[in-house]
Amino acid sequence: MRLRKFIGVEMPQFKKTLSLKIILTFLIVIIFSTSITSVMFYLQATKYINTQNEMHDRNVTKNISNSMDRYLEDMDRVSKIVIGNPEVQRILLEGQSDSYPWEQKQRDMEYITNLVLSFVSIRDSLSINLYGKDVEKIYTGLYYNYDFGINLKYTDWMKSNQQAINTEGSYIIPPNAVDHNQPSRLFGVIRSLRKMESNEVIGYITVTSDVRVLNNIIYTTNSFSGNEQIEIVDKEASLLHAVSIGNENIDKAKMRRIAATSELSDWTIVMYLPSSYSSSDLMNVQTVRNYLLSISSLVIVGSFILAIILSRYLLKPIRHFVKSMRLVRRSNFDIVLDEKGLDFELKQLYSGFNTMIAEIKKLINNISDEKLLARSAKMEALQFQITPHFLYNTLQTMEAIGEVKEVPEIQTIAQSLGKLFRYNIHGGNTVHLYEELEQIVTYFTIERIRFRDKIICEIQVSEQLRHYKVLKFILQPIVENCVLHGFKNINYKGVISVGGYVQDHRLILNVKDNGRGISQQRLSYIDSKLHEISTSQQDVKSNEFVGILNVHKRLVNYYGSGYGLHYSSTINAGTTVELILPIIMDE
Questions:
Q1: What's the rounded Cα separation, in Å, for the pair 89 and 95?
Q2: Predicted pLDDT of residue 581
Q3: Nearest Cα to 225, choosing from 161, 296, 275, 164?
Q4: Model confidence over 411-423: pLDDT tens digits?
Q5: Which of 159, 350, 366, 376 fits a 20 to 30 Å CA distance from 12?
Q6: CB-based burial of residue 298 (10 Å sphere; 0-12 exposed, 13-18 middle, 19+ buried)?
Q7: What's the CA gap between 52 and 45, in Å, rounded?
Q8: For residues 95 and 298, what is the distance between their CA atoms, to the nearest angstrom?
Q9: Distance in angstroms (rounded) separating the CA atoms of residues 271 and 61
Q10: In whole angstroms, what is the distance from residue 508 CA to residue 563 CA?
Q11: Span 272-300, mean pLDDT?
Q12: Is 503 a residue whose pLDDT tops 90?
């Protein structure tokens, strides 16, 4: 009830009506389009968030790699500054001498310490150590835990890389290269110092730091969700250092892997992250989903109300039409629908209805008139029922007189007329072709007596065609017309030929004579009458050619306008009449 008051119309009864179909179609289209749009938008939003997360993760690994490179560059820069100091080079040369005074050594060590302390940014994180050319320590930095011992030649990494350090000048010391018996895991830079005059290696400087500095770089560079693991590996994929954030027992096979390689150290930062979204990301996706569901629900409800209103408006003319049809069903034919202001389709429907009602009223009037005519015809038929019996009796009487008086011609004529009469009034509308040809023979039995064999008839129809079904009494009027008109005032023997053949799936019967022919003017007149019968639904009245026009009309009415008679003639050469029929065989 509230919904009815809201939309201002009465809700339709939900039966299998056009109104329900319109509403359902409208809703299906809206729901389908809204669902597709919502799903696509949701997928795009999810894809966008996933892409942003992946981009963020790549930036995190890249930032860690860049921060680590900057720290290594600072370490290398410090090593260059220290060994570039002329006083440091002097201390290295003199400190390796056996005659190096103890007092001088104390002053020199104090000088290096002050030099190191001048680097404010590295006081709390770096340790600087100086070694002679035999890799024995000459100067120990401020932090004793940040060195590799008294003599580097006993370390594995120095043994493996000393030649490369002397050649290339520097080497980045990875955390896993440091002996595990050291009090702290270290990493750093070692650089060789060469004598300027001879380019001879006179010592080494190491700038080292604890691996906890790497942890600080990782933690301070980015914020994490609390369930990641960061690994630092070398180019041989050996693990240099690992940091677990949150759960340390993670299954890396089930996590996403993001990597960034340093151009300075060739170390690769590998970060393993959960394969699913974080809670904040999921919250964003769920918010989008809930928003889309709310919008979709409002659209569907609004569409439902709009569909009801539109169906009421659009179906109003159809309901009026249905109401009118119900009145017609109750025999009320005094209805005329107003076609003004309607759409094209409805206007056509209303116009067709009005035309149908007019035709029905016309048919009712015609049926009333035909009933009156049928009653009159029935009375006339009852009055003339005696005529066939009278004709039969008369023909039998003529036949008996011919036999008694010994006049065989009268007897033959009476018998032939009786056959023709019985053939014409008995049986159905169609016969076999051979039955129709037998009547031609019977007819010419009479005409032979009349003309004393001056006119003969030849029947040239194959046995196969003789069993086709044709309309009854279509050949005799044509043959009779040839006898009456074709051989009038001739002084030679007349020949009528009846033939037939099949062409284009049609049966063609032809009746030819060698009579005096028909003029072109008269032939055109006959063709016009035949054409008028084929195309007009009304009766074509003519006082001439009654027989052939009657045959043509029967053929057209029974078989259709594509069938009937066709005339062709030449003066003093004869006339040909073609009867075009469909091929019909016994079922």
A1: 10
A2: 95
A3: 275
A4: 666 666 666 666 6
A5: 350
A6: exposed
A7: 10
A8: 88
A9: 7
A10: 10
A11: 66
A12: yes
486: left (phi over 0), alpha (psi -120 to 50) or beta: alpha
- Going by C-beta distance under 8 Å and a sequence separation of 6 or more, which residues neighbour residue 298? none
Distances (CA, A) of 416 to 299, 448, 546: 91, 12, 23
Closest CA to 229 of 183, 284, 270, 280: 270
Identify the helix (H) or strand (E) that includes residue 351.
Answer: helix 344-383
Minimal CA–CA distance to 227: which of 275, 259, 267, 270?
Answer: 275
Residue 35: what residue type? S
CA distance 72 to 207: 9
Tokens of 416: 């032939």
Q: Which of 456, 564, 440 is nearest to 514 (CA)?
A: 456
Angular region, 61: left φ>0, alpha ψ -120 to 50, beta rest: alpha
Coil, strand or helix at 62 = helix
Kindly state the tokens that stand for 71: 């720290």
Q: Would you call 385 helix, strand, or coil by DSSP? A: coil
Contact 205, 116 (CB under 8 A): no
Angle made by CA atoms 410, 416, 418, in degrees to the nearest 5: 100
Two tokens, residue 477: 């009027």
Q: C-alpha distances in angstroms, 465 versus 430, 477, 508, 585? A: 15, 20, 10, 10
Query: Degrees (nearest 5) of the Cα angle 53, 55, 61?
Result: 105
Under the banding of pLDDT at 50, 70 and 90, the label for residue 59 is confident
Q: Which two tokens stand for residue 41?
A: 């938008």
| Alpha helix positions (H), 405-474 | 408-425, 433-451
Cα–Cα distances in Å, from 297 out to 27, 135, 401? 12, 79, 106
| Burial readout 241-254 (b: 16 or more C-beta within 10 A, e: otherwise) | bebebeeeebeeee
Q: Residue 191 has which token pair?
A: 């650089």
Range scoring the smallest mean pLDDT among 40-49, 90-99, 237-246, 265-274 = 40-49
Please enumerate in sequence order all residues whose Cβ is within 8 A of that of 93, keeping only pairs 6 or more positions apart, or say none.
Answer: 195, 202
pLDDT digits (tens, 9 = 90+) for 194-249: 877 777 888 888 888 888 888 888 888 666 666 788 888 888 888 888 888 766 66
DSSP assigned state of 189: E
**Maximal C-alpha separation, the chain:** 189
* CB-neighbour burial class of residue 168 (10 A; exposed 0-12, middle 13-18, buried 19+): exposed
Residues 147/134, Cβ–Cβ less than 8 Å? no
C-alpha 552/C-alpha 542 separation (Å) is 13
Residue listed under structure tokens 């003017």: 521
Please give the span between the terminal C-alpha atoms of the chain, in angstroms, as a whole number.
Answer: 67
Nearest-5° Cα angle at 175, 174 to 180: 130
The C-alpha atoms of residue 56 and residue 48 are separated, in whole angstroms, by: 12
Closest to 478 in 3D by CA, of 510, 446, 516: 510
74 bridge partner residues: none
Take residue 395 and report the two structure tokens written for it: 């023909």
